[in-house]
Design a protein that fits this description.
- The chain is mainly alpha-helical and 154 residues long.
- 55% of the residues lie in helices and 6% in strands.
- It has two domains: 98 residues, Nucleotidyltransferase, domain 5 (2-Layer Sandwich), CATH 3.30.420; 46 residues, Orthogonal Bundle (Arc Repressor Mutant, subunit A), CATH 1.10.10.
- The chain contains eight helices and two strands; from the N terminus they run H-E-H-H-E-H-H-H-H-H.
- The chain is globular and about 45 Å long.
- InterPro entries: Integrase-like_N, Integrase_Zn-bd_dom_N, RNaseH-like_sf, RNaseH_domain, RNaseH_sf.
- One of its GO terms (molecular function) is zinc ion binding.
- Pfam families: Integrase_Zn (PF02022), RNase_H (PF00075).
Length: 154
C-alpha cells in the first residue's frame, strides 16, 4: 500500500516534495530508483509499480527527499502524527501488505545486492539474517571471493 501511495504522490506532485514513510523497504527502493534497472519480477503488480516509480523519479525535474521513520511509535510531533494519518489512509489501498522485514530485505537484495553491513543498517537485521540473504543470492555467489579462516597466514 505504501509503495502505491508513493507512486501516486510522484504522479500528483511535480514540485519539490518530502516523503515520509515507515517502510524501510519503500524508503530504500525510492532512494535508489533514479536510473535503476529493473530485473524480472514474478509479481506483475509489483513490477508495474516499480517500473512506474523508476520512470517518474528518473523524469522528475524537481528534487525530492525520502525519510524513514519507525512505525507504530507514540512519539509526539508532526511527522509521527502525519505518519499515523498516512497509515490509516494507505491501508485500504490497492496493493497487498508488504512482506515482513526479512522478506523485504530479501526482495531489496535481489534488486540492489547490498552487502551484509548495508542490509543490517537498512533493515535492522541480525548479522546472521543478513549473511543468510547474501549467502543464498546466486548473483552474489558468482562475485564472492573465497575467504581464509581467521588467523591463517597465506
Amino acid at each position: 500500500a505504501e509503495l502505491a501511495a508513493v507512486v501516486r504522490a510522484f504522479e500528483k506532485f511535480s514540485e519539490p516534495i518530502n516523503l515520509v514513510t515507515d517502510s524501510a523497504y519503500v524508503a530504500g527502493v525510492v532512494s535508489r530508483a533514479e536510473q535503476a534497472v529493473l530485473k524480472d519480477i514474478e509479481d506483475g503488480h509489483l513490477h508495474r509499480l516499480l517500473s512506474k516509480l523508476i520512470y517518474l523519479v528518473s523524469q522528475r525535474e524537481h528534487p525530492f527527499y525520502v525519510m524513514h521513520v519507525r512505525s507504530h511509535t507514540d512519539l509526539p510531533g508532526e511527522i509521527a502524527e502525519g505518519n499515523r494519518k498516512a497509515d490509516s489512509l494507505a491501508a485500504p489501498a490497492e496493493m497487498a501488505r508488504l512482506p515482513d522485514i526479512f522478506q523485504q530485505a530479501k526482495l531489496s537484495h535481489q534488486q540492489y545486492h547490498q552487502n551484509i553491513p548495508g542490509l543490517i543498517r537498512q533493515f535492522q537485521l541480525t548479522r546472521s539474517q543478513a549473511r543468510a540473504i547474501v549467502a543464498t543470492c546466486p548473483n552474489c555467489q558468482l562475485q564472492a571471493v573465497p575467504s581464509l579462516g581467521v588467523g591463517v597466514n597465506p
